[in-house]
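Customer escalation, tier 2.

The customer says the design service returned an amino acid string that "doesn't look like it belongs to this structure." They asked us to rerun it and document both sides in this ticket. The original structure tokens are below, unchanged.
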């Protein structure tokens, strides 16, 4: 896999959403630095989000043979690791980072950006992304979608799709 493809996808998508846009918001609206607890809580949220993002990027690369970007998507359906618990961990990771930034900086405008991001994905994913996945991956995706929740993780991993060895024969 081309490293440039991975970096481009990361910089263009979560990089813009979690770094560039928040930086513009903070630069233009300022931040609240009067509270010592908010940066600690915000840092925990950001760390959790970054862990989720890194995990999903790694799975897209190694298992899916693609990137997180719609213009270079995974070639294989990824149902491993965190994807056995929830269908959209990358979006959840980005959301945790945004919530962490809003908390860290005590910024209502950043909290608004977090809400806009969540609303946009709540519309985009079921209307655009999921039909595209169903078209690309067929019955395997439909079974996965029926058994793994979009946003709130299952406590126990779903073990419904065949192993990688069985996928190789398709």
């Amino acid at each position: 896999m081309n490293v440039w493809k991975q970096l481009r996808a990361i910089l263009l998508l979560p990089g813009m959403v979690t770094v560039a846009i928040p930086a513009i918001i903070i630069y233009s609206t300022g931040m609240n630095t009067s509270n010592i607890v908010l940066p600690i809580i915000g840092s925990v949220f950001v760390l959790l989000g970054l862990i989720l993002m890194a995990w999903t990027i790694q799975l897209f690369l190694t298992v899916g043979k693609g990137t997180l970007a719609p213009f270079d998507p995974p070639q294989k359906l990824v149902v491993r690791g965190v994807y056995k618990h929830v269908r959209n961990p990358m979006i959840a990771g980005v959301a945790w980072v945004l919530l962490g930034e809003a908390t860290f900086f005590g910024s209502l405008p950043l909290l608004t950006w977090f809400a806009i991001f969540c609303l946009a994905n709540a519309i985009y994913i079921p209307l655009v992304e999921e039909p595209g996945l169903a078209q690309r991956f067929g019955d395997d995706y439909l079974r996965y979608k029926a058994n793994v929740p979009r946003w709130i993780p299952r406590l126990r991993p779903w073990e419904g799709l065949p192993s990688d060895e069985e996928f190789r024969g398709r």
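Tier 2 assessment: The sequence is consistent with the input. The radius of gyration is 17 Å. Residues 108-147 form the longest helix (40 residues). Sent an explanation to the customer and offered a walkthrough call.
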